[in-house]
Amino acid sequence: MNCEVLCIGTELLHGDIVNSNAAYISKSLAHIGIDVHYQSVVGDNPTRMKEAFLLAFSRADLVICTGGLGPTKDDITKEITAEFFNLPMEFDNDSLEHVKNIFKKFNREMTENNVRQAYFPKGSIILDNKNGTANACIVNAQSNGKKNICILLPGPPKEMIPLMDTEVIPYLKRFSENIVVGKKVAVINVGESKAETMIMDLIDSQTNPTIAPYAGSGRVVFRVTAKAKSEDEALGLINPVVNELLHRFGDNAFVLSSDSVEHDICKKIVNRNVTISTAESCTGGMIASKLVSYPGISKVFKEGFVTYSREAKINILGVNKSTIDKYTEVSEEVAKEMAFNVTKISNADIGIATTGIAGPTGGTDDKPVGLVYLCVYYNNQYFVTKKVYFGARDTVREQASLHALEMVRKII
C-alpha cells in the first residue's frame, strides 16, 4: 500500500500555519511499512479540491486528508469526499451528541452550523475526537473500479495526532505485512558532498536497508532504514551498515538516539557527570542555550558567560590584557585563557570558549569573516580548533556552537 497525504486549508498555502501534519503522518506510516509517495496541499476551493482528490487517488491506494471538518461553510472535505465516491451524506446522532457535550462542558452555546459536523459519507467508520468537536472518519469505498481508503482527520495537530496514534495506525496495520525500522548516524566536521562520496559505494548498492543523507548546519545525518517482518529482522539488516558508517567516519560519527545531535551530546555529558561552564564571544550564548535545552542539564551545567567585548574578557574572565594586545581577541591564546579561567571561576571540570568573527563585517586578510577559535579545557589539557565557517552570521554561530559541543563529546 502507498499513501498520499493531502492537507486542506487556504491558510497553509498562505503560510499562516506551518504544515506539521504531513511530516507527522508520513513518519507514523513509515513505522508500519506504508510508503508515502506524495504530499499535497490544496486550498478550501471545491474545484481544486476535487482535482486534488482525483490526482491523489490516481497514484495512491490510500489518501489521508487533514482539515476542513469544522462547522463553517468552507469546511467541505467530507462533502467533496462523498461526491468523489458517489456516496450520500449520512447523519450520525452520536457525533451530534459529541459536539453538544463539548459545548456544554465549556458552558458555551452551540450554534446551528455545528450540526454539519454530525454528517459523514455513508458507510464511514467514525473516529471519536476526544480533543475537539469534529469527529474524524475512514471511508473505504470503490472509485473507478478500484478499492480505495480515504481517511479524514481534523487539521489542528492537537486533535490530529491522538487520532493518528490511537485510531488510524491500528486500523492500517492490517494492510501491511512489514514494519520499518531506522537508525541514524550523525557525522560532524565532514561536509555533505565529501560524506556522500565516502560512502557512495554503499548508496549505489543499496536495496534493503536504504541509506538517506540529510544535512544541517555543521552536520550530516545518515538514516539507515530497513523493512522486515519483525524488528529483530530489520535490525539484523541495519546494524552491519551502521557499523560500516561508524568505521568509515571514525570519531567524527556516532549513533543518534534522538532527533537532535545536541541532545545526544548533552545526554553523554550528563551521564558522565562532568561539570561544564561556557565562555562565549562570537557565539553569544548559543552554546549555553543548546545545553539548557536538554532536560536534566542542571546536574552538570555550572555557569555561562557571554564576554563579547574586550573589556568583558579582561574584567569578567580575567584574560590578560597583554595577551589580547599581543595576539588580538580572535586568537588561540585568548581562547585558551577564556576556557581555563571559566573553569576556575565556576569550579567546573570542563570549560568551553569561543572567539571569532561571525560577520558579515570585521574580517581582514589574516582573519577573515567566519574565523572562529574553539577551545575546550579539561583534565589539565587544552583542546583547540581553528575553523573558518562559510555562511551568514547565524550560520557561523550555529556551526561553531555545534562543533564546540562535538569537541566535548570526543574528549570525554
Name the CATH architecture of the largest domain: 3-Layer(aba) Sandwich
Q: Helical segment tally?
A: 15
Strand order within the widest sheet?
2-1-3-8-7-6
CATH evolutionary superfamily of the largest domain = MoaB/Mog-like domain
The major sheet is characterized as: 6 strands, mixed
Task: State the CATH class of the largest domain.
Answer: Alpha Beta
Q: What is the helix content?
A: 25-40%
Beta-strand proportion: 25-35%
CA gyration radius, whole angstroms: 27 Å
What is the molecular shape? elongated
* Low-confidence runs of at least 5 consecutive residues: none
Q: How many discrete structural domains?
A: 3
* Mean model confidence by pLDDT: 94
Give the number of DSSP strands.
17
Keywords, separated by commas or semicolons:
Alpha-Beta Plaits; alpha/beta; six-stranded mixed sheet; 412 residues; single chain
How would you describe this protein?
- By secondary structure, this protein is α/β, with parallel strands linked by helices.
- The chain folds into 3 domains: 2-175, 3-Layer(aba) Sandwich (Molybdenum Cofactor Biosythetic Enzyme, Chain A), CATH 3.40.980; 179-256, 2-Layer Sandwich (Alpha-Beta Plaits); 261-411, CinA-like (Maf protein, Alpha-Beta Complex), CATH 3.90.950.
- It is built from 15 helices and 17 strands.
